[in-house]
Amino acid sequence: MSERDEIRSELRESLQRVTELLQKHELVESLVHRQEGPRHDLVESIVHKANLAELQRLLEPLHPADIADILESLPVKQRLMVWDLVKAERDGEILLEVTDAVRETLIAHMDEQELVAAAEQLDTDEIADLAPDLPREVIQDVFRSLSPEEREQLREALSYPEDTVGALMDFDMISIRDDVTIEVILRYLRRLDELPDHTDQLFVVDRTGVFKGLLAVNRLLVTDPDTTVADVMQPAAARLRPQQKAQEAANAFERYDLVSAPVVDDAGELIGRVTVNTVVDYIREETDNDMLSAGGLSEDEDLFASVWKSVRNRWTWLAVNLVTAFIASRVIGLFEDSIARLVALAALMPIVAGISGNSGNQTITLIVRALALGQITATSARKLFAKEIGVSAVNGLIWGGVVGIFAYLIYRNWQLGIVMTGAMALSLLLAAVMGVAIPLVMQRLGRDPAIGASVMITAITDSGGFFIFLGLATVFLV
Amino acid sequence: MSERDEIRSELRESLQRVTELLQKHELVESLVHRQEGPRHDLVESIVHKANLAELQRLLEPLHPADIADILESLPVKQRLMVWDLVKAERDGEILLEVTDAVRETLIAHMDEQELVAAAEQLDTDEIADLAPDLPREVIQDVFRSLSPEEREQLREALSYPEDTVGALMDFDMISIRDDVTIEVILRYLRRLDELPDHTDQLFVVDRTGVFKGLLAVNRLLVTDPDTTVADVMQPAAARLRPQQKAQEAANAFERYDLVSAPVVDDAGELIGRVTVNTVVDYIREETDNDMLSAGGLSEDEDLFASVWKSVRNRWTWLAVNLVTAFIASRVIGLFEDSIARLVALAALMPIVAGISGNSGNQTITLIVRALALGQITATSARKLFAKEIGVSAVNGLIWGGVVGIFAYLIYRNWQLGIVMTGAMALSLLLAAVMGVAIPLVMQRLGRDPAIGASVMITAITDSGGFFIFLGLATVFLV
After folding, report:
1. CA gap A101, A373 in Å, rounded
2. Do A391 and B365 touch (CB under 8 A)?
3. By three-state DSSP, how is residue B223 classified?
4. Chain centre to alpha carbon of residue A217
5. Cβ(A200)–Cβ(B259) below 8 Å
6. Three-state secondary structure call for residue A245
């Protein structure tokens, strides 16, 4: 993320230009509407057309991904104006590129016929990606327009849930038999107008369609044409299954530097392939989702969504937060007598809770990451507990000492300083133990530790920090 | 991230097996050491060898990336034991795959000769990646062993800072002239044993080395051999410059679905290429770094780093947090009289600060993301302020009402409930305004809004929330 703010300067210029044109357009509209008289309509339509034509010229040469970006950056009204100017043949591709939230606004603006036309421009695996957002009648219409083979592919693609290899898969692979010569293959390829995108290798299958191996396209160029395929084909570094998690495919691509990989079913038959561009998109989307869910947003939010929609998107997290805040508040409530007697406690208690929450979150971050990478075994878990407890002990001494001195300097009460130091050390210990334990337990229970672990540790360090500090103070000071 | 916990089951099995063997090894060692007598050495060496040989057999067929993963997952002592068993020819590749923190531990364990041997197995661009971690003498030795052309490449690769295209670049491209026929190209390629990895296209240059266009390898297969290169070559979708931010290259690969892209200097000369596998690694690493820095860890931490090293890695964030906590504590200190008179304030104040902090972080997450994607213009910034203020008003009514009722139910004091509701609404408004303003101002000042914005909003909502709530209470209740 760290440099994204400098990126896409060219694109920002296009965006700037589009916005200017749209503003000019709106300005003219408002001027024209103030004039009355017979020339009104004529003036309006001429100025409009000139502006819109310029806008269209600007959009024409842009890549669908770039247009998608511009659409996402515009408030809804202007977005739909631009959307109407985009050549209909590109609708499908652009719909694939925009975020789910923005796609919704675009689709709501299109009629059934336009949607069917947009979907029909796409490959079956792409139609499957759009399908959840399309009205049922549109899907039925599209389905009817497909060949039997394509229908089978669409059914296949729709049958796998999001986040599986099946959902990333496409059917654009070239499969060949292993008993022919390279020359035959070369002749066969030459008959095609062009090879599918990302064809870095051909997929070798036997007579029954069972996957046998891979033949790199580059090998075709350097191999004696009389060789048979069987002699030069290679085993697959990764052989994916459609029901596998998409994340596993992403890992395989990352580790083994793949451009494409075969997808086989349980019988070993080749049913599709995954390509690196899909994987890159998947990784980016996952990253985005992680960022959003870390912020407590349940899904991607259209930047220009209505207030009401945004409120709903965010309310779950706030509600959870409210409950944990109420609990922490009741913990403090238990010690109201102590606070009434020594009001300094009220000012000092957020320090203990805040710093141990911070430290606990650092531990969680490391453990969640290590779990995600599969790096934690039963033996190493014990070592991690020991290490984090060690870190919290050192931090407890250092930071506990600092806050103790702070408390003494402000309130000139050395007992208060000592209680503060002790509370800090104990809270950091609690944070360390829970920071390791929470993700491990969540993992053991089959939950994703990346989601919710941070809320839990904060809830525990808040209530725990208040309890430890006020409890110690009640015992030793009040 | 969300499914990574299910991944790499095969790899986990290898890891489990390695750990078991290492434990057996340690067990035998401790048993043997307890025995005394002449047979001691013999027994030890036989059992050792059997164990280590089995371990080596296990490691042999693994991909360097998989071995890197096992090394990262082992405590330092066992890690070095496994590292010694890895065939020396693979050292270089494995060093490239491990994280920086783990690489440090491995390099510290190798002597100069081993390091030179490891580096010499690598391409110049890969040597450049390792260089920051290698002792100066090793680099000089390696440099001497290179050909003049390779030295030039290494110098070039070392001259670009991390996070630039120059650092991602390699020199493994095949460049061709545009005035020859496809047949000549095919004959030329056939003389090579194999093409470099990720050669999806050949780079067309003129006589002086100036980049002219691209010829897709797949086109070679379907084009009439008598055609000249100039007739079938295509312009580059993205032409990178070595000093560009790496993030821009990653975006180009994502948007235009690239497998490789040319890197040209200011004179237009082709100097290298970037391939998709490097880009995937870069994206993954960036994601990791974002996650770590969001948790306040200044760099990647070896899971089994020493306590002291970990403390240093984490201390900056805790120190910053301490300062903001002290400030919040002093804000509360201003109102100690009010709290002494109405102690319920102490129990209720963290609710206001906590929920507005949460809400502010949600806003920040959205704005930082939109800024990163370049989606915010001057006009849309105004709309975003309006939207977030609207959201905070709705949330203020809803959540403010809930906490007001909560306060009333606990303390049976309706004025306290009303103050609570008002404070909640005002704090949420503050959070919304600052949540939009902080990232925009940071961006304007040329800072990365992804780093630090979250700490700032939390500091503001903490101190601000306490001030608003205690202030209102002092004015209306006490």
Report:
1. 30
2. no
3. coil
4. 33
5. yes
6. strand
**In the structure encoding, which two tokens stand for residue A138, read together?**
């549109």
* Residues facing A211 on adjacent strands: A205
Residues 6+ apart with CB under 8 A from B77: none
Output the six-digit token pair for A48: 């409009």
A 10 A CB-CB count for B92 gives 20
Cα A102 to the center of its chain, rounded Å: 15
Q: What is the pLDDT of residue B61?
A: 83
The token pair that represents A159 in the structure block? 């049958």
Task: Please judge whether B198 and A257 are an interchain contact, meaning their C-beta atoms are less than 8 angstroms apart.
Answer: yes
CB atoms closer than 10 angstroms to residue A9: 9
Which pLDDT does position B478 carry in this prediction?
A: 77
Closest CB from B295, B332, B362 relative to A314: B362
Question: What is the C-alpha to C-alpha distance for residues B153 and A225, in angstroms, rounded to an integer?
Answer: 36
Element containing residue A330 per DSSP (H, E): helix A307-334
For B41, the token pair is 């050495």
Residue A269 corresponds to which tokens in the numbers above? 């038959």
SS3 A61: coil
Q: Hey, is the C-beta of B375 within 8 angstroms of any chain A C-beta?
A: yes
**SS3 state at B60:** coil
pLDDT of amino acid A27 = 58
pLDDT digits (tens, 9 = 90+) for A422-446: 999 999 999 999 999 999 999 899 8
CA atoms within 13 A on the CB side of B35: 13
Q: Which of residues 298-317 of B touch A (CB under 8 A)?
A: 301, 303-305, 307-308, 310-311, 314-315, 317
Task: Quote the CA–CA distance of A287 and B179 in Å, as a whole number.
Answer: 45
- pLDDT (0 to 100) of residue B380: 81
Q: A260: which strand partners? A: A275
Reduced to 3 states, what is the DSSP secondary structure of residue A184?
A: helix
Q: How far is CA A386 from CA A85, A380, A382, A445, in A?
A: 63, 10, 6, 23
Give the length of chain A: 478
Separation CA A441–CA A429 (nearest Å): 18
d(CA A40, CA A28): 11
Interchain proximity A329–B348, CB inside 8 Å? yes
Which residue in A466, A457, A348 sits closest to A402, CA to CA?
Answer: A348
Give the whole-angstrom CA distance, residue A92 versus residue A114.
Answer: 10
Whole-angstrom distance, CA of residue B362 vs CA of residue B253: 29
Do residues A270 and A209 make contact, with C-beta atoms less than 8 angstroms apart? Answer: yes
Query: Can you tell me the distance from the alpha carbon of B198 to that of A376, in angstroms, rounded to the nearest whole number?
Result: 33
Question: For residue A365, what are its two tokens?
Answer: 């971050």
Q: Mutation target for A interface from B362, B420, B461: give the one with most A CBs within 10 A.
A: B362
ipTM of the complex: 0.80
Phi/psi at B465 (5° precision): -60, -45
Domains of chain A by start residue, with CATH? 4-162 (1.25.60.10), 175-294 (3.10.580.10), 307-476 (1.10.357.20)
- The residue type of B97 is E
Nearest to B373 by CA among A4, A96, A71: A4
Among A277-286, B11-20, B351-360, B453-462, the minimum mean pLDDT is found in B11-20
What's the rounded Cα separation, in Å, for the pair B206 and A18?
37
Q: Is A147 exposed, middle or buried (0-12, 13-18, 19+ CB in 10 A)?
A: exposed
What is the spatial distance between Cα A467 and Cα A473, in angstroms, rounded to a whole number?
A: 10
Residues in a beta bridge with B269: B210
CB contact under 8 A, A3 and B448: yes
d(CA B153, CA B157): 6
Pairing verdict, β A201-205 and A211-216: antiparallel
Give how far the C-alpha of residue A180 lies from the chain's centroid of Cα atoms, to the nearest Å. Answer: 44
Q: Rounded distance, CA A319 to CA A105, Å?
A: 27
At A275, the pLDDT band (50, 70, 90 cuts) reads very high
